[in-house]
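Kindly inspect both lines:
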Amino acid sequence: MTLLLPSRQDIAARLSDPEYLARVGATAHDDAEDWSQRPGGPVPAAVLVPIIWHETGPGVLLTLRSARLSAHAGQVAFPGGRIEPGETAEEAALREAAEEVGLDPRQPVIAATLPDHMTGTGYRVTPVVAFLDPPVILTPDPSEVQLVFELPLALLFDPAAPTRRSTQWRGRMRDYWVWPHAEHLIWGATATILMNLARVLRQSEPAR
């Protein structure tokens, strides 16, 4: 049986409806860390969640961070980074994607945003979902990105695909999501953002 994906318009409508997002149960934190007590508060950041609509089936673009980076080296991530003063989340996500993977900022069509996500390292991340039509020409910056790959969007419709794991960090056990991939470990904030997107996609009723 062929999987019937929601339309781009339907996805954008769902992402723009706060009541709908509340119904699907988007997760706002990696763990129970209270970053409200951090001096200056959490650091605002944004990531681009690009969905490329291939004729053979859409895919979510992800990056493998360079092993030479001082933070989160070798981890799977969305293109993104800190929001600079005066920037919107959308502007920051497009700028970072241009810097990291050479994505032309005129090409993505912004759909909407997922709920802000607090990471265990003190960042408040706004995931900006965007649609792209191929061909998508990318020139990754080797100082930041080792490679670019895609996760089939259809995988997000399988409730059994993501698994829950635990590890000890800062003196206590932390739970985190992992998405299956033959070559890369997709976990942490990236996996949780994918889980939030999956919850939006799996909901059978369109937003009203």
In short: The CA atoms of residues 29 and 82 lie 18 Å apart. The chain has four helices and eleven strands. The mean pLDDT is 85.
